[in-house]
Input
Amino acid sequence: MIDAQLPVILKPENSDLAVALLRDYFAPPDGRGSDFRGAQFERLGRPWNDHRYANRITASDIVAVNCLSVDVPGDVSIALLGADTAPVEALLEKIPADLDLWDATDEQVGPHSPARELWTYLRRPGLGQMTTSKLMARKRARLVPVYDAVIAGELGLKNPGAHWEIMRKLLNTDVGGGVKLHDHLKALGERAGLDTELVTPLRVFDVATWYFGNPKLAKRVAWVAQDHGTTVPNRPPFTAPPPADY
Output
């Protein structure tokens, strides 16, 4: 049993709107200030999947994380780029860069896995759950899901600490016709014309869910729907997630 709900925007009947939102989010800057900084998350400085830096947190990674509306404090950045380099590299080396969350075993993402060890090592004042998830997602975009208040609310998440496990199960659920959620997410990315080597199914989940579920973007969602000849599905009441540090 999964203690979460499938976000409305990811139901198959809402695929046209999900694709339209993805296209709008990842559209090239138009010079009118309407572009999303987060669209640069995958490729800022260098692409996240550049194997030369797969096991090292770089300045490009930190700036990319800041594009997702969180800040890595200066003292934390100095530590990650200095004294913490070797410990972080040692843990990243134990986490395959080509491992997808839906294929991961308990040994790879469970409580005693290298991924959890890295999560615990990174957490400190200035690197709360949201910021840590985004930093790890930049380094292991196929494995680590982004966490924030909107995602938690759309999932109906009661326990932020269970986010990885809930997402792992959800990605393997049937969304209709024998199609698993992770395959549905990949298909959405392909329909949106995204580079699916860079924009993983986890990131498609993050962007579509956040865009549709963010109350501040409700009017823009309606405009995008109108422009693409589709409709906006009814929204369930927003479920405030448990408090989380950033």
In short: The chain has a mean pLDDT of 93. The chain is about 45% helix and 0% strand. The radius of gyration is 17 Å.
